[in-house]
Design goal:
Blueprint: H1 18-23, E1 32-33, H2 46-58, H3 62-65, H4 75-87, E2 97-100, H5 102-114, E3 120-123, H6 129-135, E4 141-144, H7 153-164, E5 168-174, H8 187-200, E6 203-207, H9 223-231, E7 239-244, E8 256-259, H10 262-275, H11 281-320, E9 326-327, E10 335-339, H12 346-357, E11 359-360, E12 362-363, E13 376-380, H13 386-404
Parallel strand pairs: 1-11, 3-4, 3-5, 5-6, 6-7
Antiparallel strand pairs: 2-8, 7-8, 9-10, 10-13, 12-13
Helix pairs in contact: 2-11, 5-6, 7-8, 11-13, 12-13
The structure holds 4'-deoxy-4'-aminopyridoxal-5'-phosphate.
Amino acid sequence: MDLTEMFAERTARMKASEIRELLKLLDQPGIISFAGGIPDPALFPSDAFAKAFAQTMEGDQAGSALQYSVSEGYLPLREWLVGEMAKVGVPCSVDNILITSGSQQALDYLGKLFLSPGDTALVNWPTYMGALGAFNPYEPRYDQLSINGNRSAEDFKDSAKAETGGRVKFAYLSSDFSNPTGETVDRRGRESLLDLVDDLDCAVIEDAAYQALRYDGADIPPILAFEIARKGDIEACRTIYCGSFSKTLSPGLRVGWIVAAKPVISQLVLMKQASDLHSPTLNQIAINAVARACFEDHVSDVRKAYRGRRDAMLAALERYMPKGVEWTRPEGGMFVWLTLPVGVDGADLLALALETQKVAFVPGHAFFADGSGRNTIRLSFSCADEATIEEGMRRLGLALQAAIG
Ligand code: PMP
């Protein structure tokens, strides 16, 4: 008996990434890793969570905290989010908000909501590989998002139809300090994206996972805020905003949220009911308590720590990178993106760097929907202290020198 023969066609595109195989090697002692794109656990507000969980379980709320709850999400948390969204220029009501199990679930639901096989999703080259992983089972075609006006909406529509017979359903992008490049879409870019999607008559999925982690420069309102400013009301907007507490409070509790026009939220609520009924009640209660008690102060501490690490990485790159290597200078987030001289392969470099220098990173290739980008790598500065970053960049410089020859 071979059950794998009976798997649905959609599973053909659910593949383990080659990177995961390479990263298994990271368990060896002495490796300095800039591979994991995860928050530093030392920065989690553990005391505040300990208090929130204890108070909930000791109080009258214990029963309801352990009970099923509504699919839309814990109301006091949605109310707090209404206030936060208003602060960034997104006036909305609790009915515009759905709590999800992390923003990863939001990406899965939005793929399910919009994509029929052969429909087109516009994504950056490179983009968050977890978004590609979430969309892939819905069998889309990908096209390269371009917001500088060098491709017309007609051109995007025509190639969507000609190649797979579908239509462009959405543009997905991480607007601030993207994973993997660390880059941010500026105000003009946000406006021209909105021009493009209006012409295309498609949705925008705005992934705001890193939005709170800005270290310098002025905040830029979300794309959804720009669209509300144009159209007057969230109900007239095509942008769907995906937020997350993963990079600010805790990724393990799996709490994120979607903000969108009500008809979108209503359909997503049905999807949530069918998929997991609701996100864990206790986790939502704890996130609500901690967010209300200390969100701003906590995020300000996290920013301070990561700012120092970002600065250390940029300074060390200047010192140790051989000629011909270029990198981004992110104003926030967790990542720096390196472009290596053409012909230097990121995956080969990882094998060499692990073996000879005991330093790790993620080859950039897997972030490209078209399989390009072999001469790129992603470095994450979130989990290493300044001295380790300095030593790690020194080692990376040596590995690169050996690779370039
Ligand atoms: N979007 C981006 C750009 C990410 O980097 C991540 C996590 N690495 C996610 C979404 C998913 O995060 P979560 O589900 O924990 O909110």
